[in-house]
């Protein structure tokens, strides 16, 4: 019959290990895997054979590794890391929304730049004035309502309100003139940048997702910007003459933005990889390895 193990010897060996000098104490909450006892404030010693920091549960006697819980700085560093991650996420969201606001501003600039102010009656008829010269050579201002001349001297002028008149309608006055192509080019450039920049950020920030996700997020932001502006144009009384004209321009802007976003999402990671490969050594490139793994490529 085999001899039973000497429990007293085992207990004495445990006691001998527990007699090792204390090097620290458990500074965070650490619960025993055996009985669930909280080991906070328990003493920690270094095992001579394993060269590991250990602590012992006073409730059941089970030993636990204590290398990561002997300092209270680790949980604070973890919390600080969570804070930085939250700031990063909120920063990306805020930056994307700011680019959407910039696109909204470009629509406002286009509307304000190409339209002029005029008058409209309360029942929706456009009031215009023309300078006419009669047969005797005398000139005078003539008032027209929807193109029909009225005699304001003998008729009561209906109440009017200021309205915005788009190009192509009577009463419109060109406010930009020869600067229109340059002005339009500038606005399209800013509108495209409002898609390219957030598209690049989203493609890198959402590297764990397929390319359709960054495009969808950017497209939704642009759609919200355009939809919000068009909702204002169609609902405000003094803008209703410009609503059909501006809708066509808004749809064109949105198509340009979505096309620029699609190209950006497709090329952002390859361009980022090329730049990092050109300027960073291999060891530093490992920090950005997700740019390669997201597309199933090996880190060069």
What is the spatial order of strands in the main beta sheet?
8-7-6-5-9
How many β-strands, per DSSP?
Answer: 9
Number of helices: 7
Residue share in helices?
Answer: 40-55%
Distance, first to last CA: 64 Å
The 3D shape can be described as: elongated
Largest beta-sheet details = 5 strands, antiparallel
Mean pLDDT: 82
Residue windows where pLDDT falls under 50 for at least 5 positions:
1-14
**What order do the helices and strands follow?**
HEEEEHEEEEEHHHHH
**How much of the sequence is in beta strands?**
15-25%
Over all CA atoms, what is the radius of gyration? 37 Å
Question: Helix/strand-derived class?
Answer: alpha+beta
Which helices and strands appear, and what pairs or packs with what?
Layout: H1 7-18, E1 22-25, E2 43-46, E3 53-56, E4 63-65, H2 73-114, E5 116-121, E6 126-133, E7 139-145, E8 148-150, E9 160-165, H3 180-205, H4 212-235, H5 243-279, H6 282-285, H7 290-293
Antiparallel strand pairs: 1-2, 2-3, 3-4, 5-6, 5-9, 6-7, 7-8
Helix pairs in contact: 2-3, 2-4, 3-4, 3-5, 4-5
Write up this protein.
By secondary structure, this protein is an alpha+beta fold. Helix content is 50%, strand content 15%. It is built from seven helices and nine strands. The strands form two sheets. Strands 8-7-6-5-9 form a five-stranded antiparallel sheet.
């Amino acid at each position: 019959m085999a001899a039973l193990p000497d429990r007293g010897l085992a207990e004495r060996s445990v006691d001998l290990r527990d007699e090792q000098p204390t090097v620290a104490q458990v500074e965070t909450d650490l619960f025993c895997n055996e009985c669930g006892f909280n080991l906070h404030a328990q003493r920690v010693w270094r095992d001579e054979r394993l060269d590991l920091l250990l602590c012992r549960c006073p409730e059941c006697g089970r030993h636990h590794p204590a290398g990561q819980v002997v300092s209270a700085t680790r949980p604070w560093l973890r919390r600080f890391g969570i804070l930085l991650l939250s700031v990063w996420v909120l920063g990306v969201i805020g930056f994307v929304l700011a680019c959407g606001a910039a696109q909204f501003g470009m629509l406002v600039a286009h509307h304000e730049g190409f339209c002029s102010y005029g008058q409209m009656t309360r029942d929706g008829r456009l009031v215009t004035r023309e300078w006419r010269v009669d047969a005797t050579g005398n000139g005078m201002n003539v008032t027209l309502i929807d193109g029909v001349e009225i005699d304001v001297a003998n008729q009561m002028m209906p109440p009017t309100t200021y309205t915005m008149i788009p190009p192509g309608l009577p009463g419109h006055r060109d406010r930009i003139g020869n600067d229109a192509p340059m002005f339009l080019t500038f606005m399209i450039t800013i509108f495209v940048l409002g898609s390219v920049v957030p598209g690049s950020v989203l493609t890198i920030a959402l590297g764990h997702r397929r390319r359709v996700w960054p495009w969808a997020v950017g497209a939704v932001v642009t759609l919200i910007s355009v939809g919000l502006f068009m909702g204002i144009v169609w609902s405000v009384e003094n803008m209703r003459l410009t609503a059909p004209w501006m809708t066509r321009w808004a749809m064109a802007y949105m198509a340009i933005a979505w096309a620029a976003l699609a190209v950006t999402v497709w090329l952002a990671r390859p361009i980022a990889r090329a730049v990092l490969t050109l300027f960073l050594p291999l060891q530093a490139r490992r920090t950005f390895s997700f740019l390669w793994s997201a597309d199933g490529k090996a880190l060069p």
